[in-house]
From TrEMBL:
NCBIfam families associated with the record: sda_alpha
Protein name (database record): L-serine dehydratase
Pfam families for the chain: SDH_alpha
Broad class of enzyme this protein falls into: lyase
Gene transcribed to yield this protein: sdaAA
The UniProt record lists the keyword Lyase: yes
Superkingdom in the source lineage: Bacteria
Amino acid sequence: MVFSDLLTIWRNTGLEFSEIILAQEMMETGRDPVAVKRSLKYLMDVMLEEAQKNFGKPFKTLTGLTGNNAAKLCASKPRVLSEFNWVATVTALSMAESNAAMGRIVACPTAGSCGVMPAMLYALRNVKEADNEGLLKAFIVASGVGNVVAKKATLSGAAGGCQAEIGTATAMAAALMTYYFSHNPETVGHASALALKSLMGLVCDPVGGFVEVPCVKRNAIAVNVAIACAEMALAGIESVIPFDEVVEAMYHVGRSLPESLKETGLGGIAATRTAQKLVESIHKTLNSGSET
Ligand code: SF4
């Protein structure tokens, strides 16, 4: 089912949109909506727990390419970022670095993009004092947005570039914030479309194939894109292109990308001279470690 079908059901029934998404999941998979809601609540709680535990912490990652970014931003007083954006940015860095250090994360929609949704959830709860029930409904709506992309396109960087991974996470986070404040699925569609369009064409180019550079910082940028897109949609700004068509366009762009820009580590910033030198030195260090 595409997003416009979900909107049609909502317009015809006026049911709570998160319930429509759960009912749709039951139609497609046969899963009990109560059980699906329970597992989504569990995932949301894990994200919030890990965000709380990891906020601004330093990490030791396999390559050492990342691990100190969240701690640095946490120790630095923001000059222009609002408290909300700053908390979201620190959280996104923390979760993405925790992933690089083999910490517990929820792949949402993938491990590489695991920082974006917790960042939005944590900032809403801690800065805006969002209530759990409202957050859960918004989280279910965001998962419905992710499901549309999964069914109609791809969530994989190897198949569609980073636009499919972090782009989808950004659309989901924009949906989450928008639904929390508006309860309006049409506004959610605009926010998600604005977000996915903003990251259209983003290539997957991890240095050495490690999910660290540019992945960690991209999570942080992405949550700020999501916040801006949600604010625009909440202000009544509409996406000229509907969400479903943006998803289709993203899929076609992903198919058109060369293999070097789809998680092979051969293109984009992974192909720069500095990246290649770093990878050589990381491999030397890792090999010497395994020989001792
Ligand atoms: S660059 Fe590739 S590996 Fe890194 S987050 Fe994006 S899609 Fe995932």
